[in-house]
Design goal:
The chain is mostly helical. The chain has 2 domains: 1-75; 77-234, no CATH class. Helix content is 69%, strand content 0%. The protein contains 9 helices and no strands. The model has no long low-confidence stretch (mean pLDDT 88).
Length: 237
């Protein structure tokens, strides 16, 4: 029987049981660079092996299980690099895997349905892809090096003419437009052939939107407050 209610994850739970319940946790582990061969280990054992604060890991894992962030008090300055690693790996997943997969599906749809409306979908997605790339490049090139600078006390780093507040203000809701695209495909674009391809395309869009939403929550509810706390300690910003 399909289970819709997910478990609230705790340190002593077996990671394999949690993955069987929610396979999306495999992607989360990949973002952390964790080997998905978890054996019979508990959550805290996996975290200890990979030098990750288990409270950070559990907070993010529970996002994938559908729970809100509740407590980040024990996520601290040393955890910044783990968060940045997670976010950078998620960027690669979006740009190198998920978005090309979606673009290929749209191209295949057009090949089987010579429909001008599909061309509009293609144009919409290409513009959206460029917007996402610019957003992620900004994080990789401007924001994350600054966050690492704060964490590592790198005296040779570039000027600190940046802040968590500037990062927060620059942050955009890059997942919203995916809802518009899903709406087009579900309600407004007639296709005579290959309904399975439309299903695959919609599934990929849902998967991308799901991970992007979690990505945004991590930035807004974990990373930005942590960086603001470090700035306050260092009297920066």
């Amino acid at each position: 029987m399909y289970q819709t209610k997910k478990t609230f994850i705790k340190p002593d739970m077996k990671m394999s049981d949690l993955i069987f319940e929610n396979p999306s946790l495999l992607l989360m582990m990949e973002h952390f660079d964790i080997n998905i061969a978890v054996r019979n280990n508990t959550v805290v054992q996996i975290c200890n092996e990979n030098h990750i604060n288990h409270e950070l890991f559990i907070a993010i894992a529970n996002l994938y299980n559908g729970f809100n962030i509740t407590n980040t008090e024990n996520i601290s300055r040393p955890d910044t690099e783990s968060i940045i690693l997670f976010l950078k790996n998620s960027h690669r997943y979006y740009l190198d895997e998920k978005m090309p997969e979606i673009r290929d599906c749209i191209g295949s749809l057009y090949a089987k349905n010579d429909n001008p409306e599909i061309r509009l979908v293609e144009k919409f997605f290409d513009e959206y892809s460029q917007e996402v790339k610019e957003h992620l490049d900004y994080e990789d090139i401007v924001a994350f090096p600054y966050f690492s600078y704060l964490t590592n006390d790198d005296s040779n780093s570039k000027s600190t003419k940046f802040s968590a507040e500037e990062y927060r203000q620059h942050h955009t809701d890059i997942e919203t437009k995916l809802g518009e695209l899903k709406n087009l495909l579900l309600k407004h674009i007639p296709l005579k052939q290959d309904g399975s391809l439309r299903r695959k395309l919609l599934t990929s869009l849902f998967e991308l939107e799901y991970d992007l939403t979690i990505h945004s929550v991590i930035e807004e509810s974990i990373l930005t407050p942590l960086i603001k706390k470090i700035e306050k300690q260092k009297k920066i910003g």
